[in-house]
Amino acid sequence: MARMTALRVFFASGIAALGFAALAPGGLAPQVQTPAADGPAVKKVAVPADAGWVDTGIDVAPGEELVFRAAGEVSLQRGNPEAGCGPGGLDLITVEQPVPDENLGALIGRVAQLVSTRTDEDSGMEIRDEIFVLFFIGPERTVTVPVKGRLYLGLNENVLKDNAGEFTVLVSRRPAGDRTGLKAFPRPPSRPCARP
Ligand SMILES: [Ca+2]
Question: Cβ neighbours of residue 85 under 8 Å, at least 6 residues apart?
């Protein structure tokens, strides 16, 4: 289940502005955080297929472990019966998509760290310099965070306006160095050891 493909680290300026421009105005409100009964907090995040990067509201640190579990159906082209898929995406790879070697429309993640902002002399537009990492998630995956930043979720596609539907993603996290937390999602309490 866990896919350990390499995480790509990017440094972008200008391009980063395009990335942020894909966000819905004002961003999307993160969902309510619900503490699990016997484990780390699990956050439920809706990822509409046509929304661009969804801000989870979660700031992550290097070494922290994130466990994702996703469900839901989306269409990558409204009205096209061949364009429906779950978080694993369509069995299709195109020449242009954010994570190039994974299925089109699959659930992907992005951790972005803003380095600086500056103003373009010609256009007057704000340019955001940032470091970011993109990674495949799919229906279920555990990821160790490589860089500090804000966690965003989205689809592995560049043409988003014609999409419909949404994924629902549960995000569970464990701090770096924490060996007491649960590996993934809450499990039933373990039985006490039998007395000798
Ligand atoms: Ca599309």
Answer: 73, 74, 76, 103, 105, 106
- pLDDT higher than threshold 90 for residue 3: no
User: Using CA atoms, how far apart are residues 166 and 152, in angstroms rounded to an integer?
Assistant: 15
Distance (angstroms) between ligand 1 centre and the Cα of 76 equals 4
CA of 81 to the centre of ligand 1 (A): 13
What spacing in Å lies between the alpha carbon of 144 and ligand 1's midpoint? 29
3-class secondary structure, 83 = helix
Residues 129-166 pLDDT 10s = 888 999 999 999 999 998 999 999 999 999 999 999 99
Q: How far is the CA of 159 from the centre of ligand 1 (A)?
A: 4
> For the domain with range 8-174, which CATH number is right: 1.10.760.10, 1.10.8.60, 2.60.120.430, 3.40.50.300?
2.60.120.430
- Ligand 1 center to 181 CA (angstroms): 38
Domain boundaries of the chain, sorted by first residue: 8-174
